[in-house]
Amino acid sequence: MKITDAKRDFRLMFDLIREMSPPHHFEFSEPFWVLVTTLLSHRTKDQVTDAAARALYNRYGSAENLSRASYDDVLNMISKVGFCKVKARRVIDLAGIIVNRYEGKVPENREELMTIPGVGRKTANVVLSDSMGIPAIAVDTHVQRISKRIGWSRSDEPEKTEEALMKIVPREEWVGFNPVMVEFGKTVCRPVGPRCQKCLINKYCDFYSKKSE
Hints:
The protein is mainly α. It contains 12 helices and no strands.
Protein backbone atom coordinates (compact mmCIF):
# COMPACT_ATOMS: atom_id res chain seq x y z
CA MET A 1 0.00 0.00 0.00
CA LYS A 2 1.28 3.47 -0.87
CA ILE A 3 1.79 5.98 1.95
CA THR A 4 -0.83 8.28 0.39
CA ASP A 5 -3.39 5.45 0.37
CA ALA A 6 -2.51 4.53 3.95
CA LYS A 7 -3.02 8.14 5.05
CA ARG A 8 -6.42 8.31 3.38
CA ASP A 9 -7.51 5.01 4.93
CA PHE A 10 -6.14 6.13 8.31
CA ARG A 11 -8.45 9.13 8.46
CA LEU A 12 -11.47 6.97 7.69
CA MET A 13 -10.49 4.29 10.21
CA PHE A 14 -9.44 6.64 12.98
CA ASP A 15 -12.74 8.53 12.78
CA LEU A 16 -14.50 5.19 13.32
CA ILE A 17 -12.11 4.19 16.11
CA ARG A 18 -12.81 7.48 17.83
CA GLU A 19 -16.53 6.83 17.50
CA MET A 20 -16.14 3.47 19.26
CA SER A 21 -13.87 4.72 22.05
CA PRO A 22 -15.12 6.21 25.32
CA PRO A 23 -13.45 9.38 26.63
CA HIS A 24 -10.03 8.73 28.13
CA HIS A 25 -9.63 9.46 31.84
CA PHE A 26 -6.59 11.56 32.66
CA GLU A 27 -5.68 11.42 36.34
CA PHE A 28 -3.41 14.45 35.99
CA SER A 29 -2.55 17.15 33.47
CA GLU A 30 0.54 18.59 35.22
CA PRO A 31 3.69 17.28 33.44
CA PHE A 32 5.47 16.09 36.59
CA TRP A 33 2.54 13.99 37.79
CA VAL A 34 1.88 12.66 34.30
CA LEU A 35 5.53 11.60 34.28
CA VAL A 36 5.19 9.90 37.67
CA THR A 37 1.95 8.17 36.64
CA THR A 38 3.40 6.90 33.37
CA LEU A 39 6.51 5.61 35.10
CA LEU A 40 4.31 3.69 37.53
CA SER A 41 2.09 2.31 34.77
CA HIS A 42 4.45 -0.31 33.32
CA ARG A 43 2.93 -3.79 33.82
CA THR A 44 0.15 -2.32 35.96
CA LYS A 45 -3.59 -1.84 35.42
CA ASP A 46 -4.79 1.72 34.94
CA GLN A 47 -6.94 1.76 38.07
CA VAL A 48 -4.02 0.60 40.23
CA THR A 49 -1.64 3.07 38.61
CA ASP A 50 -4.02 6.00 39.05
CA ALA A 51 -4.72 5.14 42.69
CA ALA A 52 -1.00 4.92 43.48
CA ALA A 53 -0.18 8.18 41.72
CA ARG A 54 -3.09 9.94 43.40
CA ALA A 55 -1.91 8.71 46.81
CA LEU A 56 1.55 10.15 46.15
CA TYR A 57 0.07 13.43 44.97
CA ASN A 58 -2.22 13.73 47.98
CA ARG A 59 0.64 13.03 50.36
CA TYR A 60 3.41 15.08 48.73
CA GLY A 61 1.85 17.43 46.17
CA SER A 62 5.09 18.51 44.50
CA ALA A 63 8.35 17.20 43.07
CA GLU A 64 10.28 18.90 45.86
CA ASN A 65 8.31 17.18 48.61
CA LEU A 66 8.43 13.80 46.86
CA SER A 67 12.19 14.12 46.44
CA ARG A 68 12.49 14.16 50.26
CA ALA A 69 10.12 11.23 50.82
CA SER A 70 11.22 8.08 52.58
CA TYR A 71 11.54 4.95 50.47
CA ASP A 72 9.39 2.90 52.87
CA ASP A 73 6.59 5.46 52.81
CA VAL A 74 6.51 5.60 49.00
CA LEU A 75 6.74 1.82 48.74
CA ASN A 76 3.77 1.43 51.07
CA MET A 77 1.65 3.75 48.92
CA ILE A 78 2.49 2.10 45.60
CA SER A 79 2.73 -1.49 46.84
CA LYS A 80 0.07 -2.74 44.39
CA VAL A 81 1.83 -1.59 41.22
CA GLY A 82 4.10 -3.94 39.30
CA PHE A 83 7.80 -3.82 40.26
CA CYS A 84 6.87 -1.56 43.17
CA LYS A 85 10.26 -1.82 44.90
CA VAL A 86 12.13 -0.58 41.85
CA LYS A 87 9.54 2.10 41.08
CA ALA A 88 9.51 3.43 44.67
CA ARG A 89 13.18 4.31 44.39
CA ARG A 90 12.78 5.62 40.85
CA VAL A 91 9.99 8.08 41.58
CA ILE A 92 11.96 9.53 44.49
CA ASP A 93 15.07 9.82 42.32
CA LEU A 94 12.98 11.22 39.48
CA ALA A 95 11.61 13.95 41.73
CA GLY A 96 15.13 14.83 42.86
CA ILE A 97 16.36 15.10 39.27
CA ILE A 98 13.46 17.36 38.27
CA VAL A 99 14.09 19.61 41.27
CA ASN A 100 17.88 19.72 41.19
CA ARG A 101 18.69 19.46 37.50
CA TYR A 102 15.69 21.21 35.98
CA GLU A 103 14.61 23.58 38.77
CA GLY A 104 11.31 21.80 39.17
CA LYS A 105 10.23 21.98 35.54
CA VAL A 106 9.87 18.83 33.41
CA PRO A 107 11.99 19.06 30.20
CA GLU A 108 10.03 19.73 27.03
CA ASN A 109 11.95 17.51 24.64
CA ARG A 110 12.17 13.75 24.31
CA GLU A 111 15.94 13.42 24.29
CA GLU A 112 16.30 15.29 27.58
CA LEU A 113 13.45 13.35 29.20
CA MET A 114 15.07 10.08 28.19
CA THR A 115 18.25 10.93 30.12
CA ILE A 116 16.23 10.43 33.32
CA PRO A 117 16.56 6.86 34.68
CA GLY A 118 13.41 4.84 34.05
CA VAL A 119 12.08 7.18 31.35
CA GLY A 120 11.94 5.48 27.96
CA ARG A 121 10.65 6.67 24.63
CA LYS A 122 7.03 5.74 25.32
CA THR A 123 6.97 7.52 28.67
CA ALA A 124 8.62 10.61 27.20
CA ASN A 125 6.11 10.71 24.34
CA VAL A 126 3.16 10.37 26.71
CA VAL A 127 4.40 13.33 28.76
CA LEU A 128 5.02 15.48 25.70
CA SER A 129 1.71 14.70 24.04
CA ASP A 130 -0.73 14.28 26.91
CA SER A 131 0.48 17.00 29.28
CA MET A 132 2.31 19.50 27.06
CA GLY A 133 0.42 19.25 23.80
CA ILE A 134 3.67 18.65 21.91
CA PRO A 135 3.08 16.32 18.92
CA ALA A 136 4.37 12.81 19.68
CA ILE A 137 3.10 9.26 19.20
CA ALA A 138 3.42 7.06 22.27
CA VAL A 139 3.48 3.36 21.40
CA ASP A 140 2.30 1.41 24.43
CA THR A 141 1.02 -2.17 24.43
CA HIS A 142 -2.40 -1.11 23.08
CA VAL A 143 -1.01 0.95 20.21
CA GLN A 144 1.50 -1.77 19.34
CA ARG A 145 -1.11 -4.53 19.31
CA ILE A 146 -3.76 -2.59 17.41
CA SER A 147 -1.36 -1.17 14.83
CA LYS A 148 -0.07 -4.62 13.96
CA ARG A 149 -3.53 -6.17 13.89
CA ILE A 150 -4.89 -3.51 11.54
CA GLY A 151 -1.80 -3.53 9.34
CA TRP A 152 -0.46 -0.05 10.10
CA SER A 153 2.77 -1.67 11.27
CA ARG A 154 4.43 -5.00 10.50
CA SER A 155 6.92 -4.83 13.36
CA ASP A 156 6.88 -6.16 16.93
CA GLU A 157 9.28 -3.38 17.96
CA PRO A 158 7.56 -0.28 19.39
CA GLU A 159 10.13 2.12 17.95
CA LYS A 160 9.63 0.76 14.43
CA THR A 161 5.87 0.88 14.92
CA GLU A 162 6.23 4.52 15.96
CA GLU A 163 8.20 5.22 12.78
CA ALA A 164 5.51 3.53 10.67
CA LEU A 165 2.73 5.48 12.37
CA MET A 166 4.53 8.78 11.93
CA LYS A 167 4.35 8.22 8.17
CA ILE A 168 0.58 7.66 8.03
CA VAL A 169 -0.86 9.53 11.03
CA PRO A 170 -1.27 13.23 10.18
CA ARG A 171 0.83 15.33 12.55
CA GLU A 172 -2.25 17.19 13.78
CA GLU A 173 -3.57 13.85 15.10
CA TRP A 174 -0.45 12.93 17.10
CA VAL A 175 -1.69 14.73 20.21
CA GLY A 176 -4.60 12.63 21.45
CA PHE A 177 -3.80 9.60 19.29
CA ASN A 178 -2.57 7.40 22.14
CA PRO A 179 -5.53 7.99 24.52
CA VAL A 180 -8.05 7.15 21.78
CA MET A 181 -6.17 3.96 20.90
CA VAL A 182 -5.85 2.97 24.56
CA GLU A 183 -9.62 3.18 25.06
CA PHE A 184 -10.24 1.33 21.79
CA GLY A 185 -7.83 -1.35 22.96
CA LYS A 186 -9.54 -1.72 26.31
CA THR A 187 -13.11 -1.83 25.02
CA VAL A 188 -13.05 -3.25 21.47
CA CYS A 189 -9.66 -4.43 20.20
CA ARG A 190 -8.88 -6.22 23.45
CA PRO A 191 -5.77 -8.39 23.97
CA VAL A 192 -7.97 -11.42 24.64
CA GLY A 193 -11.43 -11.73 23.15
CA PRO A 194 -11.38 -8.80 20.73
CA ARG A 195 -14.89 -7.73 19.70
CA CYS A 196 -14.23 -8.05 15.98
CA GLN A 197 -17.85 -8.65 14.97
CA LYS A 198 -18.93 -5.34 16.50
CA CYS A 199 -15.89 -3.39 15.32
CA LEU A 200 -16.66 -0.69 12.75
CA ILE A 201 -13.30 -1.10 11.02
CA ASN A 202 -13.25 -4.90 10.72
CA LYS A 203 -13.47 -4.77 6.92
CA TYR A 204 -10.21 -2.78 6.84
CA CYS A 205 -8.39 -4.94 9.41
CA ASP A 206 -5.74 -7.55 8.50
CA PHE A 207 -6.37 -9.46 11.72
CA TYR A 208 -10.11 -9.79 11.06
CA SER A 209 -9.52 -10.70 7.43
CA LYS A 210 -7.21 -13.57 8.38
CA LYS A 211 -9.49 -14.62 11.22
CA SER A 212 -12.44 -14.86 8.81
CA GLU A 213 -10.64 -17.02 6.22
